Amino acid sequence: MSKTYPKDERNYGSSPGNPTWVRYRDNHPESYEDLTPAQKAVVAQWIEAGLPAGAGSYFLKHSFEESQEGFYISNGQMKGAMLAAGFTAVDATAFSWVFRARGDR
Fold first, then answer.
1. Residue 4 DSSP code
2. What is the longest distance spanned by two Cα atoms in the chain?
3. Cβ atoms < 10 Å from Cβ of 8
4. What's the pTM value of the predicted model, to 2 decimals?
5. What H or E segment, with its residue span, contains residue 88?
């Protein structure tokens, strides 16, 4: 089950150098590395199949989980999967990242 935190404790751009990073690891894109290679492949295939325009990482994570091939992933793992697929975040300090189309800076 996903951890929930009060609004003021959410990870807004927390990084490994920040002392609170471990507490919010499930929202950090580096948590993507916690997925197995097989899980990464399933998420990558889902991303390649097409995404709704303008959707944030939190929406995408739930959409993936509800898909036929889906399983639980954290918001951070979805952020990491999107980065691995070549997308960049519009605002990496936000809780839910919206992504630019691949190749857009």
1. -
2. 38
3. 6
4. 0.76
5. strand 88-89
Q: What is the mean pLDDT of residues 48-70?
A: 92
Evaluate if residue 30 carries a pLDDT over 50: yes
Backbone torsions φ then ψ of 54, nearest 5 degrees: 75, 10
Is residue 6's pLDDT more than 90? no
Q: Which two tokens stand for residue 74?
A: 């954290």
Contact 32, 26 (CB under 8 A): no
Task: Identify the pLDDT of residue 42.
Answer: 97
Using CB atoms within 10 Å of the CB of residue 57, give its burial: 0 to 12 exposed, 13 to 18 middle, 19+ buried. Answer: buried
The pair phi, psi for residue 89, each rounded to 5°, is: -80, 140
List the one residue out of 81, 77, 73 whose CA is nearest residue 41: 81
What are the residues whose beta carbons fall under 8 Å from the beta carbon of 16, sequence distance 6 or more?
28, 30
Q: What's the token pair of residue 48?
A: 């390649």
Find the mean pLDDT for residues 9-29: 58
